[in-house]
UniProtKB/TrEMBL annotation:
Organism, as annotated: Eragrostis curvula
Superkingdom of origin organism: Eukaryota
Keywords, in A-Z order: Signal
InterPro entries: AB_hydrolase_fold, LACT/PDAT_acylTrfase
Protein name: AB hydrolase-1 domain-containing protein
Length: 441
C-alpha cells in the first residue's frame, strides 16, 4: 500500500482533505482477487446491469402520417415501419440522411406538460433493452463498455444470464421526483422489471449490482433514488458509478451546448454542424455548472460584452440561442435547475470511481464574442471532462446523510481520464476489483 499512497500524496494534501477517508487499492492485487472470485464461482455472483454512456444507446424511429418532412428525402421512410435512426453513424452520410437524422432526432419542449417530446409524426423507441449490445462508435470501438464486458466475462459473468444492459433514450435526462417524464417513467418500469428478473433468475435469488458510466451513472443514480425503499433494499445490492455526471454540473457540458459536441459520431459532420440538433436535447442542458458549487462571482464564460457566472446560465442560454431563449430557458429553469438542489441519497451501498489530475475546462473565453468559434479554454483539475469541484460536492452530498455515509465509498484515480477510465487496463482493473468487492461485501 505504501508506495501507492506516495504517488497520491501531493494530490491528497493539496486538493482532497476528505480523500484521506477514501480507499486506494494496489493494482497488483487485482488479478489475484479476480481469480479468487472465479474460484468461488456462482456462490458469490450477483447479476450486473450495465447502464452505458450517452452515445451508446441506439434509437429507432417510425414516421407516421402526421410527419411533415422538410424535404422529400426525409419522408422516404414514412409508413415503412421502424428503422434505425441512431444505430450506425456511418450509415447516415452513406444514405444522404444526415439532415433528416437531425430533423427526426429533434426534441421540442411542451410548456403545458413541462416535458420534451418528439416532433409531430416521429415515434421513437430504444431497441435491445436488457441486452449488453450497445451502439458502437467506429472511431472508439471500446467506448461502450466493450472492455468492461470482456473482463466481466473473464471472471465468469454471462451475457443474458448474469450480465444485462439497460439502454435509454440519450436525448432525455432523468427527472427528479415530481417532474413529469413519460420516457423515463417507462424506462424506470422496464429497468425495475429487468432487475427483478435478473435477481430471481439466480439460484437462491441474488440482488443486483447496478453499474452506470458517465451519463449512465446519473441515470442509474436517479433510478435508485426514485425506487421505493423496500424495493431498493430487496433488489439493489450495490450501485457502482464510474465517472457519473454530477447534478451540480461541469463546464464541458456548457461548452458542448455553446460550441457543439462531438459525442455523437457521424462521419462528415462537425460539432458545429450537429449543434442545432444537440441543443434540442434535454440531456444537453441537464448538467450545467450550478451556483452552489461553481460560485456566483467567478466568471465561467467570458465575452467582451458580458461575463457569465453559474448564476447567469439562463441568461447565457438566451444569449446563445437568441430569440429570448425560446424553448430552452423555460425547461432549463423548470426541469434542470431544481436537480442541482435535490440531495436525496439513494440509500443503497454506493461506490463512486472518478479520475482526477487531468486538465479539465474551467473557464471559456470567447474573446470576440462569437459562439461559433471554439473558445480559448482555461483549465483546472478533473477527469478531463468533469470538474474536480463537482466530484467533491457529490461526495459531500452523499456523506451528509448518516444512513448513506456509512455505505458510500469514493475513489479518486489519479491520471484516469473520463474517456479512458474503462479502457485503460490499469484503471479498468481497479473498477473490476471494485465490482468484485461490492459483490463480496
Ligand atoms: C455501418 O454503415 C456503413 C456505411 O453504410 C457500412 O459500411 C457498415 O458495414 C455498417 N456497419 C454495421 C455494423 O452495420
Ligand atoms: C470579465 O472577466 C474578466 C476576467 O475576470 C475581466 O477581466 C473583465 O473585465 C470582465 N468583463 C466584464 C465585461 O465584466
Amino acid at each position: 500500500m505504501a508506495p501507492f499512497l506516495v504517488r497520491f500524496l501531493p494530490l491528497l494534501l493539496l486538493l482532497l482533505p476528505a480523500a484521506l477517508r477514501e480507499y486506494y487499492l494496489p493494482a497488483a492485487s487485482n488479478r489475484r482477487a479476480q481469480d479468487a472470485v472465479v474460484a468461488d464461482g456462482d456462490k458469490l455472483r450477483h447479476p450486473i446491469v450495465l447502464v452505458p454512456g450517452v452515445s451508446c444507446s441506439e434509437l429507432e424511429a417510425r414516421l407516421t402520417d402526421a410527419y411533415r418532412p422538410s424535404t422529400p428525402r426525409c419522408g422516404a421512410m414514412k409508413g415503412k415501419g421502424w428503422f434505425g435512426l441512431w444505430q450506425n453513424g456511418s450509415d447516415l452520410p452513406a444514405h444522404d440522411y444526415v439532415p433528416c437524422f437531425m430533423e427526426q432526432m429533434r426534441l421540442v419542449y411542451d410548456p403545458d406538460a413541462n416535458e420534451f417530446r418528439n416532433i409531430p409524426g416521429v415515434e421513437t423507441r430504444v431497441p435491445n433493452f436488457g441486452s449488453t449490445v450497445f451502439q458502437r462508435n467506429p472511431e472508439h470501438t471500446d467506448w461502450c463498455l466493450e472492455d468492461l464486458k470482456r473482463e466481466l466475462e473473464r471472471v465468469g459473468y454471462r451475457d443474458g444470464e448474469t450480465l444485462f444492459g439497460a439502454a435509454y433514450d440519450l436525448r432525455h435526462a432523468p427527472p427528479i421526483p415530481g417532474q413529469p417524464s413519460r420516457v423515463y417513467s417507462r424506462y424506470f418500469r422496464q429497468l425495475t422489471a429487468l432487475v427483478e428478473d435478473a435477481s430471481t433468475k439466480q439460484q437462491g435469488r441474488k440482488n443486483v449490482i447496478l453499474f452506470g458510466h458517465s451519463f449512465g451513472g446519473m441515470v442509474a443514480l436517479e433510478f435508485a433514488r426514485a425506487a421505493p425503499a423496500a424495493w431498493r433494499e430487496k433488489y439493489i445490492k450495490h450501485l457502482v458509478l464510474v465517472a457519473p455526471l454530477p447534478a451540480s454540473g461541469f463546464m464541458e457540458s456548457l461548452k458542448n451546448f455553446v460550441s457543439g459536441s462531438d459525442l455523437l459520431y457521424v462521419p462528415t459532420t462537425t460539432p458545429l454542424s450537429l449543434r442545432p440538433m444537440w441543443r434540442t436535447f434535454e440531456s444537453a442542458i441537464a448538467t450545467f455548472p450550478s451556483p452552489s458549487v461553481f460560485g456566483d462571482d467567478t466568471p465561467l464564460v467570458i465575452t467582451p460584452r458580458r461575463n457569465y457566472t453559474a448564476r447567469d446560465m439562463a441568461d447565457l442560454l438566451a444569449d446563445v440561442v437568441g430569440a429570448g431563449g425560446d424553448g430552452v430557458v423555460e425547461p432549463f429553469r423548470r426541469r434542470e435547475l431544481p436537480k442541482a438542489r435535490y440531495f436525496a441519497p439513494p440509500m443503497v451501498p454506493v461506490t463512486c470511481v472518478n479520475g482526477v489530475g487531468s486538465v479539465t475546462p474551467e473557464q471559456l473565453v470567447y474573446s470576440d464574442g462569437d459562439f461559433d468559434v471554439e473558445p480559448e479554454v482555461v483549465f483546472g483539475d478533473g477527469d478531463g471532462t468533469i470538474n474536480l469541484i463537482s466530484m467533491l460536492a457529490f461526495d459531500e452530498e452523499m456523506r451528509r446523510k448518516p444512513g448513506q455515509r456509512k455505505q458510500y465509498k469514493s475513489i479518486k484515480v489519479r491520471g484516469a481520464r473520463h474517456g479512458n477510465i474503462l479502457t485503460e487496463e490499469w484503471s479498468l482493473n481497479l473498477v473490476i476489483q471494485e465490482i468484485l468487492e461490492a459483490s463480496r461485501v
